[in-house]
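Q: Second attempt. The first request was missing the SMILES, so the protein and flavin mononucleotide are both included now.
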Amino acid sequence: MSYGDDFQRKSKYTRGSLSGRSLNWNKKPDPYKAYPPDRERIQLEDPDTEGGGPLYSLLKERRSVRAYGPGAMDKGTLGQLLWASQGISRDTRQHQLRTAPSAGALYPIETYVVANNVRGLEPGVYHYEVFQHGLALVRPGEWGAALARAALGQNMLARAPAVFAWSALVERCKWKYDQRAYRYIYLDAGHAAQNLALAAVALGLGSCQVGAFFDGEVDDVLELDGVEETVIYMSAVGPGK
Ligand SMILES: Cc1cc2nc3c(=O)[nH]c(=O)nc-3n(C[C@H](O)[C@H](O)[C@H](O)COP(=O)(O)O)c2cc1C
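A: Got both inputs this time. The predicted holo structure:
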């Protein structure tokens, strides 16, 4: 099986391969996923956009943390982490630009939180509504154990107060970049996760990025179809032990 090698080779830009391509602006996908209006919604406090600690110290301190204390996380802290990972940091006339870069400003990455122990939030799966800086309830319930099973038994996903899961709405990026979109989707998700990791350190928390999981099982927890939208990456986050 060499489809990885194949993908890398076939998705290379070479001189001449870009000519003759044009974009259908009528089909440009919307950068915001919206759940139906009858879903329960939680508005988050405005994020702090100043301070947060000296960058080089945060870079030096960041380590993958896999053991979490029993305490809950505040809803405000969760909101701060969400903003740091994918929040809007500048509104231009054309785009709402985010804290993390995205190829072509297309933002194919959606952010979900599996709330295991967040003060002020019922346990459940939530979708981050970037534009509103709020959460929409995807499904209530304690999903941490199912998520841990889906991640090859990594129990930190059940013990951490919150788990971030980033999916991709593939067409949002394919609309412009076709098969090369997959490269950009993975890169975009990495930026989102690194922002979270550094913000966690700034807030005195730890995180661990997770790429080992049965994709279909995580998609099931998040209620994603696995084709149009599929999980890419996860991070556990919370106070280290
Ligand atoms: C793409 C990616 C996937 C990862 N997947 C896992 C994982 O499934 N489980 C885990 O415990 N750590 C995972 N990690 C964390 C790495 O093991 C960790 O970053 C590495 O050992 C370096 O340690 P540090 O993060 O403390 O610097 C992953 C890291 C990356 C970048």
